[in-house]
Amino acid sequence: MVIVVLFVLLLPVLIRDINRKYTDNWLHRQKDKVLQTVRSQGIEKYIQNGEGFGSYNALLKEEYVSMDVDSVDRSLDTIVNERRLVEGDTIQYRILSHNFRIGKKNYLLEIGKSIDTINETTAPLQNIAFEILLGMVLLTILADQFYSTYVLRPLGRIIRTKLIGQKFPSRTPYRKVVTSTTDFAYLDISIYKMMQTIENTFQKEREFISNASHELMTPISIMQSKIENMFGREDINDEVKERLLEFQRILNRLKSITKTLLLISQIENEQFLKEDHVQVGDLLQEVYDEISIRLQEKNINCEINVPADWELEQVNKFLLFNLVFNLVNNAIKYNKENGSIWIVGAKVDKHYILSITDTGIGIDAEQLPHIFNRFKKFSKSLQQDSFGLGLPIVRSIADFHRIQIEVESEAGLGSTFRLIFPDEALKKEK
Amino acid sequence: MNVLIVEDERALTTEMELFLQSNNYLCETCYNGATASEKIATNLYDFILIDLGLPDYEGLDLLKEAKKHNPEATCIILTARAAVDDRIKGLDLGADDYLSKPFSLLELQSRMQAITRRKFGLKNAIVALGNFNIDLTNRSISFKDIPINGITKKEFDLVAYMLLHKNRTLTRSQLSEHIWGSLVNDDYDSNYIDAHIKNIRKKLNVFDTPDWLETVRGLGYRININS
């Protein structure tokens, strides 16, 4: 680009230079011709009786030739721009002056060409050059376009298919990008190898989770069975059984934590399918049935208002149920006696939003950013019997379904959790 | 009923055996796939409980063998493996049920009975409790001949579970594991069992006192049947 600009700027100078050289050459040629004539036909052809010779184009005085005896003894051979007075007109000429000697006399030959004529040819030349240049620039742009769309097409394809939108675990097998360029093929295979390394790491993590859970679940299973068998025995008295009960509760806690962590890992490793159709209203009713005993215990009023035609596609029902269950469960757990819960589905600015609002204790503003962190418990939390994994599950399930969560809360007044569904999850109304 | 337990974890095998024997099952145990494979090929069982995580054998292969040599047997897969598609694969290969570890022995027995009932098409599975009749097939409770409305699904599940494990005290943990076991949730201790029992009693008391439903102080609940 810089080169092109430089070239355009220098163009007039260059053209002028070329033109001047051309003119100078022409002048030299004319001089040689005159000298030849002088040599072959004698100086008398031009100068007779010591009278100088002068000739010019009659009308425009573009060119002129003059020959005379030089009064000064010198040996000039120059080309300069000078003014000459021709028949009353002062005209700027480019003049070749040349001294030559014949006999004892020194003669001066001058051949001139008017600067105007020279410039007259300069302008069209400049234009032509400029047009050629423009053409070349256009040609370069076209060539670039061709290069990037055709020759570089494999690169774009590699970026599109192999880098952007790459998900783990990748379920599609490796497919070579069609290219005849060795470098692209090399890039393709390199990216593939890199992705495989990442994939392997994921695979190892999955295996680790699977193995770790096996190793943890088996001892828990043994303990649970032992306790159950002891409960069933008649020869163990109730006092011992009451202590066993404590044991069982602690074991249950361990079991819940392990199961929950495992579930989060499984979700994050995409080990669940998204193949269910879910009627949102039905799902909420199921959650309500499941949870009604808890509402009843605290005498909480729960209102559900969701359009009947809301239907989700390509979701995992089990996970969605757990998502909603945990949110509603929290809305009960942190609510006041005789409080309220509103579950409302609404379309806001083209987005489908399910909001769950409670009249509970709310969340402090400084705690709000941390509520989705694992094992985060808040001192204000009224309940002692939670381990801080409820909202992390919610977050994992929401992310898995690309559902956005927004939380709004005011301490002492209550909280609102908003689930914003992605467009593709919602079956469009007919 | 003959049960084959295939489980490499000996301590767990022992507990399962103890429990099932006390419930009148005849148990055989083996700790590896090779022995299990032989036993499956030579003996006939009513139940085969297969752990998928055997050290020497692919548990799903064992399931295939069981389906071949013991087509009548009820196969239940036990596993601690996390992979979700294992469950699908297992059920595809003809397993009758799937229990993930850690499971409750009570739950195991309840699943075994449910499958038996389904397989042999036991109709009129009606159990009399005092003046009440519990219909396990239609999942309803009636007082003499009057059907009792308003018993929720959860409430019936609780009664049925206690009835299955009659004369045995069930702790709140065991009961909540049965009715809320598949839920993944933040509470490890919250107990709404008491509320459910209270509701059941309230609904039944309209007709008669359900004195067979006993609260065992400090421990839990149980249904008493003197047979």
- In the sheet with the most strands of chain A, the strands line up as 1-2-5-4-3
CATH first level of the largest domain in chain B: which class? Alpha Beta
Report the helical percentage of chain A: 40-55%
What's the CATH topology label of the largest domain in chain A? Answer: Heat Shock Protein 90
Strand content of chain B: 15-25%
- The fold-level CATH name of the largest domain in chain B is Rossmann fold
The CATH architecture of the largest domain in chain B can be named as 3-Layer(aba) Sandwich
Distance between the termini of chain B: 21 Å
Helix count, DSSP H or I runs of 4 or more residues of chain A: 8
CATH homologous superfamily heading of the largest domain in chain A: Histidine kinase-like ATPase, C-terminal domain
Low confidence ranges of chain A: none
Radius of gyration of chain A: 48 Å
Q: How large is the radius of gyration of chain B?
A: 19 Å
- Secondary-structure class of chain B: alpha/beta
Sheet having the most strands of chain A: 5 strands, antiparallel
The number of strands of chain B is 12
Instruction: Please state the overall shape of chain B, judged from the principal axes of the Cα atoms.
Output: elongated
- The CATH superfamily of the largest domain in chain B is Response regulator
Q: Could you state the order of secondary-structure elements of chain B as H and E?
A: EHEHEHEHEHEEEEHEHHEE
Provide mean pLDDT of chain B, rounded: 86
Q: How far is it from the N-terminal to the C-terminal residue of chain A, by CA?
A: 56 Å
Describe what this molecule looks like in 3D.
The complex is a heterodimer of chains A (430) and B (227). In chain A, the strands form three sheets. Chain A has a five-stranded antiparallel beta sheet with strand order 1-2-5-4-3. A five-stranded mixed beta sheet of chain A has the order 7-9-10-12-11, with helices on one face. The longest helix of chain A is centred in the middle third of the chain and has 51 residues. Chain A folds into three domains: 121 residues, no CATH class; 87 residues; 150 residues, Histidine kinase-like ATPase, C-terminal domain (Heat Shock Protein 90). In chain A, helix 3 runs parallel beside helix 4 and helix 4 runs antiparallel to helix 5. Chain A has 430 residues and is of the alpha+beta class. In chain A, 50% of the residues lie in helices and 21% in strands. Chain A is built from eight helices and twelve strands. In chain B, 41% of the residues lie in helices and 22% in strands. Chain B contains eight helices and twelve strands. In chain B, helix 2 packs parallel to helix 3. In chain B, a hairpin with a 3-residue loop joins strand 11 and strand 12. Chain B is elongated. The model of chain B has no long low-confidence stretch (mean pLDDT 86). Chain B has a five-stranded parallel beta sheet, sandwiched between helices. With 227 residues, chain B is α/β, with parallel strands linked by helices. Chain B has two domains: 118 residues, Response regulator (Rossmann fold); 98 residues, Winged helix-like DNA-binding domain superfamily/Winged helix DNA-binding domain (Arc Repressor Mutant, subunit A), CATH 1.10.10.10. Chains A and B meet through helix 4, helix 5, helix 6, helix 7 and helix 8 of A and helix 1, helix 7 and helix 8 of B.
